[in-house]
Design goal:
The chain has a six-stranded antiparallel beta sheet with strand order 1-2-3-4-6-5. The longest helix has 18 residues, at 99-116. By secondary structure, the protein is α+β, with helices and mostly antiparallel strands. The chain starts with a helix and ends in a 5-residue tail after the last helix. The chain has helices spanning 3-14, 65-77, 99-116, 118-125; strands spanning 20-21, 30-33, 41-45, 50-57, 80-84, 87-93. The protein has four helices and six strands, in the order αββββαββαα. A hairpin with an 8-residue loop joins β1 and β2 (30-33). 39% of the residues lie in helices and 24% in strands. The relative contact order is 0.16. The chain has one domain (3-125): Alpha-Beta Complex (Aspartate Aminotransferase, domain 1). It is globular, with a radius of gyration of 14 Å. α2 runs antiparallel to α3 (99-116) and α3 (99-116) packs across α4.
Length: 130
């Protein structure tokens, strides 16, 4: 196990979560975690030290109203927002040490979705959660 994966696993465990195993992807270390939604989310660190919750928000159409609001909330929370193939990832610089702040921003994003996009929050984002 690489040092980066070990650091991510330790950071996830320090938050009281159970880290899983993520498949290697383009040289980016990662772990999985089940948090705020029933499907596992992959947490990866890129070569620049940005920690990403990959595809944290599924099925967000680029250019749509939801996408705009997601980008606005991400900016307010000070996190990066990247869209790829209809899924939005949230990122924060600082590597594994940034995990608490990244999870706090993701939690704030979920709260906005529940308040302003309830159909998305309970029908797409976290189907099994109410």
């Amino acid at each position: 196990m690489s040092d980066a994966v070990a650091a991510l696993r330790a950071a996830v465990a320090a938050q009281g979560l159970v880290p899983g195993t993520a498949k290697p992807k383009r040289g980016k270390p990662g772990v999985t975690l089940v948090w705020l939604r029933p499907e596992p989310v992959t947490l990866r660190q890129d070569a620049k030290g940005v920690l990403w919750l990959e595809a944290y928000l599924p099925w967000v159409m680029a250019g749509g109203r939801l996408h705009k609001q997601v980008k606005d909330v991400a900016a307010e929370q000070g996190v990066l927002c990247a869209s790829r193939e209809g899924h939005v990832s949230l990122g924060l610089t600082g590597g594994a040490a940034a995990l608490p702040a990244l999870l706090a921003a993701a939690r704030a994003m979920r709260e906005v979705l529940q308040a302003e996009w309830p159909d998305y929050a309970t029908g797409v984002f976290a189907k099994a959660l109410t």
